[in-house]
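tool_call: predict_structure(chain=1)
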Amino acid sequence: MTLEHEKITLDQKIGKETTQILLEGDIIVPDIKPDMAVVLQAEAKANISRTEVSADRINFIGKLDLHILYLARGSERPVHSMTATAPIDDFINMDGVAKDMWVDAEADVANLDYKMVNDRKISYRCVVNVTVSAQSRCEHDIITNIGDLPANQLQKSTLVLSRSIENKNDRLMIKDELPIPSGKPNIREILKTSVSISNKEARISNGRVNVTGELVVTTLYKADGDTSLIEFVEHEVPFNGAIDISRPTADDMLVDVTLAVQDQYVQVKQDDDGEDRVLDLEVALAAVVKVSCQDSIEILEDAYCINKQLDISKTPVKYPRLVCRNRNQNTIKESVQIDDRAPDIMQIFRVTGKPIVDDVKIIDDKVIAEGVVEATALYLAESDELPLNSFTTVIPFRQAIETKGALSGANDMEALLSATVEHVGFNMLSGREMELRFLLAFNTQVLQEKSANMITDIVFSDMDKDRLAKSPSMIVYVVQKGDSLWKIAKNYNTSIDDILSVNDIDDPNKIYPGQKLLILKKISEE
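tool_result:
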């Protein structure tokens, strides 16, 4: 008998862990900046740039970027800004992880506390959540067929599985020159530039992942000629990029790309008339690219050979199956009032939103996501004492996503969901109230962890001749619940064709519990 082998590669989930790290330090006002009177806004953003994997341990390296807006001392009380960067270098233990495995690490600022120590120094404490997941690609040498053995003595099945083709970290560089709209004054000093990503799309073609989208660039600056005048501009910068894939791909493969702003540089540039009216922008986007496909693989589950003993070696394996994936959008809208102690709103400069998913549940054919959008508004205030103010609130959301095939209470199913803000809108309703609108995009997929026993070796040997000789020449077998003709034929060392012929059965699938079958002793031609 010839054993036919095939090598297959399966994804293996190693683990997913979340840890909290505390970063604390001091921010000193640069010598060229004036003393602080009041801190108007403090923001922090964490980013993981790389990971280093060793046995049962993952090191992650990145940075924490801090940005401070403050009101300076003096009769004009001008607004100034300053930035600081703190390194992130920590580790997390994960059983089973090893070098060369695929590791993905994400960082998110959970909390930022700060206080003015004096008019030249701020101390901060920042809690950062870091989530690390690891995955390996396991190769198995399995037996898929036995040559020269009749097909009806083989039992085969089909595995439908999700298999990764490529997991890759890359960078996209975007450069552009952004003119200040007419009617806006020249730039004296940039106070703050924020960059967000919207309308992202990814497609695979000709061995490349093509990524398109828009950068929403918002800039707060001090106008030239008036130290107290603050202006705000917003630009939409379309971008596209291509990421090469090292392994063979097909256009119908599934691709997921996660983008994050890793670094941003902006400086003032003169226009053709020699005036400071151009923003020279350079943005580095960190791209996590995952390409996968859905495969159907036929495997050998069991076999028997008349008058032969088969010693079958099997290896248990687990593999993921994609149940469903879906992408949808929903707009949440709410009117919010600023804090009683905050000054009245004169003009809203900018609103940002950060979706926080608190709970994800699978209900039959649906995934339910619940959470909040943490909304922050920066506005010009009707106050000489506090001309610029920041206001933060949370807006709850609940989203139902259609995921056909997802089952409630299935312990082997997992819903993976990410939420992003695609667009932000706002209206000033009064000096104390504003309407906020967020277009949320939900990317959802449901995976099921399946298990199978793969045949890796078969040893043939002759059956005991004395035992064969003593077996009855015929028996009457009563069909039990769960029986099949294949199982009966294997147990009684005969063939399905002989059982069908002797019992005058036309359809081998139509046997039923309590049915009596006559089984004759089968002797091989040897």
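agent: Helices lie at 465-470, 485-491, 496-502. Proceeding to next step.
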